[in-house]
Design goal:
By secondary structure, the chain is an alpha+beta fold. The protein has two domains: about 5-145, Nuclear Transport Factor 2, Chain: A (Roll), CATH 3.10.450; about 165-305, Nuclear Transport Factor 2, Chain: A (Roll). Helix content is about 25%, strand content about 35%. It has nine helices and eleven strands. The chain has helices at about 5-25, 30-40, 50-55, 140-145, 170-175, 185-195, 215-225, 230-235, 300-305; strands at about 40-45, 75-85, 90-100, 115-125, 130-135, 165-170, 205-210, 240-250, 250-260, 275-285, 290-300. The strands form two sheets. A six-stranded mixed beta sheet has the order 6-8-9-10-11-7. A five-stranded mixed beta sheet has the order 1-5-4-3-2, with helices on both faces. A hairpin with a 2-residue loop joins strand 8 (about 240-250) and strand 9. Helix 5 (about 170-175) packs antiparallel against helix 6 (about 185-195). The longest helix is centred in the first third of the chain and has 20 residues, at about 5-25. The two termini are about 35 Å apart. The model has no long low-confidence stretch (mean pLDDT about 95).
């Protein structure tokens, strides 16, 4: 949070407190009162964490995991790893840890322990949540449960639409530059946005750490089969558009989508000619204009569904 303006810092701290209160109350006896306090009447859950599994189970008799997944994951504990606040937004990065003991959108109980990442981008107005956007690592969740995507009786694979929101990198940078005098956080935002352009090469600090690749599981899948992960060759017209850009101290959080045509082989998946696109969350740290650390999480399960191979990772670690 930017502490230069005490009033602004107080508002950001309040937003973080509201976001954490909401998150930590889920599945507890306090939840109904907390939601009454912190959810605005027009609250929009723009995206659920298990978007794809929920969509696959829609209009079927597949077992529902319950509110906040507590029926299927009764001992669920969310381990919050990072929090950021900027303007009217709060970002949360956490791990969902639990034991899978009941039906989960059609996946039968496995008794297995799960530990998967989820990211949240929240928007607040006057101390209340007006928008919640969540993305869980559903591909890894299914792998840890040892389960394939539950088959629908109609035989369909419910693939998500290609994301259409966001702005081109150049437009985002122009908006920031138009503000006039730029803070360190503004300059870091520009560098983070520019990293999504194919024309730019990231300026990495000595000792730079890449904590997670965007398509982490596809990379592992390719490596296990002795092939290279080449996303740009598989989707040669790939283009990124930025949806959310946040800064706090030396950290930048970015939500963007990457979209293009599957025109080349991807880890042995033959070209389909389909237009594909997924959401991506990125966390970057900067020091004196250089990237010191990055952690990126792409919605790989969405891509598998769009390509018609939802169970690709089932036999891989």
């Amino acid at each position: 949070m930017n502490h230069a303006d005490p009033n602004r810092a107080e508002e950001l701290a309040r937003n973080v407190a509201v976001a954490l209160r909401f998150k930590k109350s889920q599945g507890t006896p306090e939840m109904p009162q907390v939601e009454k306090d912190v959810l605005a009447p027009n609250y929009d859950r723009a995206r659920g964490g298990n978007l794809h599994l929920a969509n696959n189970a829609r209009d079927t008799d597949m077992a529902h995991p319950g509110l906040y997944l507590r029926k299927a994951l009764p001992d669920r504990v969310d381990v919050i790893e990072r929090v950021i606040a900027d303007g009217d937004r709060v970002g949360l990065l956490f791990r969902v840890t639990a034991t899978h003991t009941e039906g989960f959108f059609g996946v039968p109980p496995s008794g297995r322990k799960i530990d998967v990442y989820e990211v949240a981008f929240l928007k607040l107005v006057d101390g209340q949540l007006v928008e919640g956007w969540f993305m869980m690592d559903e591909a890894e969740l299914l792998r840890q449960m040892g389960a394939a995507l539950p088959a629908r009786s109609d035989g369909r694979i419910v693939a998500p639409p290609v994301p259409e929101k966001g702005e081109d990198v150049d437009i985002v940078i122009k908006h920031i530059e138009a503000q006039g005098t730029l803070s360190t956080q503004d300059r870091n935002k520009i560098l983070a946005a520019a990293s999504r352009s194919t024309r730019e090469k990231q300026n990495l600090a000595s000792g730079y750490r890449h904590l997670r690749y965007g398509f982490e599981h596809l990379r592992s899948y390719c490596k296990a089969r002795g092939s290279k992960f080449e996303l740009d060759a598989a989707i040669p017209d790939r283009r990124d558009r930025i949806e959310v850009l946040m800064a706090e101290r030396d950290e930048i959080w970015m939500r963007f989508n990457t979209v293009g045509t599957h025109g080349g082989s991807l880890c042995g998946i033959a070209p389909t000619g389909k237009r594909v696109g997924v959401n991506v969350a990125a966390i970057m740290r900067f020091d004196d204009g250089r990237v010191t650390e990055s952690w990126i999480f792409a919605d790989e399960f969405a891509l598998l569904l769009q390509l018609g191979v939802p169970n690709l990772f089932l036999q891989t670690k």
